[in-house]
Amino acid sequence: DVCSSDLVVYWTGLMSEYVDDLLFASGALDALTTAVEKVWAISDLEKAGKGKIVKYCGFEIGAASNNDGYVIRQKKYEQEMVKRFGITQATGFPHVHLAEDDEVPSGEIKESDVKLAQSMAGALLWLTTRTRPDIAMTVSSACRLATKNPCKSVEISKAVMQYVLGVPGGLHYPR
Predict the structure, then answer these.
(1) Which of 74, 73, 70, 71 is nearest to 26 (CA)?
(2) Which of 21, 79, 94, 164 is deepest in the core (most CB within 10 A)?
(3) pLDDT digits over 98-150, tens only?
(4) How many helices (H) does the chain have, and how many strands (E)?
(5) Tens-digit pLDDT profile for residues 77-106
(6) Tens-digit pLDDT profile for residues 12-25
(7) How many CB atoms lie within 10 A of CB 146?
(8) Is the dihedral of CA 118, 120, 123, 129 positive or negative?
């Protein structure tokens, strides 16, 4: 019975696969790679560790400071994003004021403003769903307003991007 309370699960690691790239997080790395090599030809292994970053699906994975697990970031994506949208001012937190009437545009809605709002919110949404949950709530407001009040959406996105520039992020997975 799969639902039995007697069932004991032993985790030996995690594996992620994207097309022809594999990522292992395991203490049994040698056994895993030997098993994979029996089926497929594989290239040399890259191992994340102190001072060594591994890139996988746009993520940068490296050892956390004080050797307490790993940190997953998208530092290069963050830098490219703020450069693409001309963000040069950095802040320590997103300076955003949200109000009940934000959905009411202050003037005519232009297609070019909608496209810019969607592009900025989309770039932030990509970051949010991968390595920056700290900006999720504010980015959801930018997404919601992209077609209703694109100028306010752009204002919000700029503020979040200034925060991303000032506070590079990532996720820490401790041991």
Answers:
(1) 70
(2) 164
(3) 888 888 887 899 999 999 999 999 999 999 999 999 999 999 999 999 999 99
(4) 5, 6
(5) 999 999 999 999 999 988 899 888 888 887
(6) 777 788 887 888 87
(7) 24
(8) negative
Residue keyed to tokens 């990522």: 23
Residue type, 16: S
Three-state DSSP string of the chain: CCCCCCCCCCCCEEEEEECCEEEEEECCHHHHHHHHHCCCCCCCCCCCECCECEEECCEEEEECHHHCCEEEECHHHHHHHHHHCCCCCCCCCCCCCCCHHHHCCCCCCCHHHHHHHHHHHHHHHHHHCCCCHHHHHHHHHHHHHCCCCHHHHHHHHHHHHHHHHHCCCCEEECC
